[in-house]
Design goal:
single chain, mainly alpha, 0% strand, globular
């Protein structure tokens, strides 16, 4: 995930910036064509990590609890991240950088 990056900034989507490694991944792998950016880092990150809409994951805004469903500021107990799903298939996963989806 990259902050402040537009859809067409990557070469494979018509960008003016040379991105050969990302272009290579897109050519031989997956290209997301429908992802909803929520305009804030925490909800976008929650969606990317869980495959759910940010409100379904519990991060409708940031990591503060607004006292309303979808705005708990923490991943719900019934929400699994992609890493947790991959672990059930025997994969090991690692995280580096900001987390900002739980307290």
């Amino acid at each position: 995930m990259s902050d402040d990056m537009g859809y067409s900034d990557i070469g494979c989507y018509g960008g003016e910036i040379d991105t050969p490694n990302l272009d290579s991944l897109a050519k031989s792998g997956l290209r997301y064509t429908q992802f909803y950016n929520t305009g804030r880092c925490c909800p976008t990150r929650a969606s990317l990590l869980t495959g759910l809409y940010a409100h379904q994951a519990g991060i409708g805004q940031m990591t503060n609890d607004a006292g309303r469903p979808g705005y708990k500021g923490d991943l719900g107990r019934d929400v699994m991240t992609m890493a947790e799903v991959l672990k059930t298939a025997g994969y090991s996963t690692y995280m580096a950088g900001k987390w900002h989806v739980t307290k």
